[in-house]
Write a structure and sequence with these properties.
It comes from Marinobacter algicola DG893. The protein has about 280 residues and is mainly alpha-helical. It is built from 12 helices and no strands.
Length: about 280
């Protein structure tokens, strides 16, 4: 069974994708005062200036305005660098600069704007944990509930479309309950079910056909890998030392050809790729 940390990672992938899209669709925030105007939000990043002060709230001090001016100048000076960073690396850089200038006040100034994303992540992680163990429902119902959960969290049509079937389907096929069902089916029935689920998640027929061929290639690799591991275990019981090393080298070449050296390096590091869990539709 996967850990809650792994499920949290899935939640981050989907919600970060949605956050990226919604950031593109969000208009720049209004100026805090007539003295300063925030720069446009970075692409894929929620507006980087503090939220506008609500009516009746206290205005920022001159010292805070000076810090804000320095922060916005830093944004402008580093705009291209920040835009080229991965999303989470950019978030880290932004928060480091905010905290360097504003200290503990950074969380107060920017936290309100970003807390909905954190709340959505927690809610979606909980839903993934539920679906992960929902063995009593069909994969089709799981797919429906997964799509519904994302739609409820992000009801923007463009955001839902741009999240795309790739992330959604990979998430679906990563759930234990779905994999448990797929493992009970024959090879042909399983492929038909995988194709149907991809169709339900929004893949066009051309992509379904292409992915089905990839599935067959994966199946062949796994069959070859399982046969290799069985023969490898027999050799390990029969030989040792240099004799075993030579026999394994020959066996790897027989099964993997040009990839034999890569397999050997992995095994020397203690990684045996065909001892991993097989997750249909994913690996």
């Amino acid at each position: 069974m996967k850990t809650s940390l792994w499920l949290a990672g899935l939640a981050v992938v989907i919600l970060a994708t949605a956050g990226f899209i919604l950031g593109l669709l969000t208009a720049p925030v209004q100026p805090l005062t007539s003295e300063t105007s925030p720069p446009p939000a970075l692409s894929g990043q929620p507006a980087t200036s503090p939220p506008a002060q609500s009516q009746g709230s206290s205005t920022l001090s001159k010292e805070d305005l000076a810090k804000l001016s320095a922060y916005e100048q830093w944004l402008e000076d580093n705009r291209l660098l920040l835009q080229g960073m991965p999303m989470f690396e950019r978030q880290t850089a932004l928060w480091e600069k905010r905290e360097a200038l504003f200290g503990d006040d950074a969380s107060r100034i920017w936290g309100e704007r970003e807390s909905p994303m954190h709340a959505n992540q927690d809610a979606f992680q909980a839903e993934l944990q539920r679906l992960d163990q929902a063995h009593e429902i069909t994969p089709e119902e799981t797919a429906h509930q997964l799509k519904t959960s994302v739609e409820q969290l992000y009801n923007n049509d463009m955001a839902r479309q741009l999240i795309g079937p790739d992330v959604m389907t990979r998430t679906l096929f990563s759930l234990d309950a779905v994999q448990s069902h797929l493992h009970t089916l024959s090879a042909d029935a399983r492929q038909e079910r995988i194709n149907s689920l991809r169709r339900q998640m929004g893949y066009p027929e051309e992509a379904i056909s292409r992915l089905s061929k990839q599935d067959q290639q994966r199946n062949e690799r796994w069959q070859n890998g399982k046969a290799y591991m069985a023969e490898r275990n027999q050799l390990a019981r029969r030989y040792s030392g240099d004799q075993l090393d030579e026999a394994l080298d020959d066996l790897r070449v027989e099964h993997f050809g040009r990839s034999a050296k890569t397999i050997a390096l992995e095994e020397r590091d203690g990684f045996f790729r065909f001892e991993r869990e097989r997750r249909f539709g994913v690996n």
